[in-house]
Amino acid sequence: MLTFYHAPWSRSSGILWLLEELQVPYEFEMIDIRAREGVPESYRSIQPNKKVPAIVHDGQVVTERAAITIYLADRFPQAGLAPAIEDSDRAAYLTALVYCDSVFDPAICAHVQGLKYESNHYAFGTFADMLAYIERRLARHPFAAGGRFTAADTQLASGINYTMNILRALPEKPVFKEYLARVETRPAFRKAQQIDMELAAKVPFFSGQEA
Ligand SMILES: N[C@@H](CCC(=O)N[C@@H](CS)C(=O)NCC(=O)O)C(=O)O
C-alpha cells in the first residue's frame, strides 16, 4: 500500500508526475498547506516540518523529494526510471537528483528572497554558479542523467518549469525551454498536470472560498 501526501501545484507535484510515470497504484492524502489554520500538527508524525511531499509505503515513511524519488524508482524498477547500481549513468542520476534539493531549490529561494550572503557561508553556493552548472549539464546531455529520461528528470524539469515559467526566477534560456519541451510531451506529465488541476479546484485557496 502506497500513500502519497500531496498538495497540488507545490513541490510535491514532481512526485505526482513520478508516480504517474511508474504506473503503480497509490492513494492520496491531501495536505492543505495553504489553509488559513495551517497544516494540522498531527501531520508532523509523517513529515517533521509538516511539508509535502511524503509517502508511506508498506508502513515505511519516506520524506524529502530526492529520497522519495530514489526510493520509488528503485522500488518499482519495471518502469526503468532508475539507472541500476552498476550502470555508468547512476552517478549522474544521483548527482542531478540530489542537486535539485540541496543546491537548485535553496539557491533559487535565496535569490528570490534577495538574501545577501557569501558563497562559502551556505552549502548551496551562489545562484550564478547553480545556473551555469544546470545550463552546462543540459547543453551536454538531453536529460538529467545523460541520454535517456530518468526519475531525476521529474524533479529537475519540475523545478525548472516552476521557477522559470511561474516564479520567473530562472532566465528563459533556450537550453531550458528545449529540455522542458523534450520531457513535457510525456503522457505521465500531462496526466499529472490534469490531476493537479482537478485537485487544486477543490482547495479553498484556489477555488476562491477563502477570499
Ligand atoms: N525539503 C522538502 C521541502 C518540501 C517543501 O518545501 N514543501 C512545501 C511545498 S511547496 C511545503 O510543504 N510548504 C508548506 C509549509 O511550509 O507550510 C522536500 O524537498 O521534500
Walk me through this protein's architecture.
The protein is α+β, with helices and mostly antiparallel strands and about 210 residues long. It has two domains: about 1-80 and about 190-205, Glutaredoxin; about 90-185, Glutathione S-transferase Yfyf (Class Pi), Chain A, domain 2. Helix content is about 50%, strand content about 10%. The protein has eight helices and four strands; from the N terminus they run βαβββααααααα. The protein has helices at about 15-20, 65-75, 90-110, 125-140, 150-165, 175-185, 185-200, 205, and strands at about 1-5, 25-30, 55, 60-65. Strands 2-1-3-4 form a four-stranded mixed sheet, covered by helices on one side. A hairpin with a 2-residue loop joins β3 and β4. α1 (about 15-20) packs parallel to α2 (about 65-75), α3 (about 90-110) runs parallel beside α5 and α5 crosses α6 (about 175-185). The chain starts with a strand and ends with a helix. The protein binds glutathione. Glutathione (GSH) binds next to loops. The site of glutathione (GSH) has 11 residues, from loops.
* Succession of helices and strands: EHEEEHHHHHHH
Structurally, how many domains make up the residues? 2
- Strands of the widest sheet, in order across it, are 2-1-3-4
Estimate the helix proportion, in percent.
Answer: 40-55%
Give the distance, in angstroms, between the N- and C-terminal Cα atoms: 37 Å
Report Rg. Answer: 17 Å
**What's the CATH architecture of the largest domain?**
3-Layer(aba) Sandwich
Indicate the overall shape.
Answer: globular
* CATH homologous superfamily identity of the largest domain: Glutaredoxin
CATH topology label of the largest domain: Glutaredoxin
Q: Number of helix segments? A: 8
* Largest sheet report: 4 strands, mixed
Indicate the structural class: alpha+beta
Please tally the β strands and state the result.
4
Unique ligands: glutathione
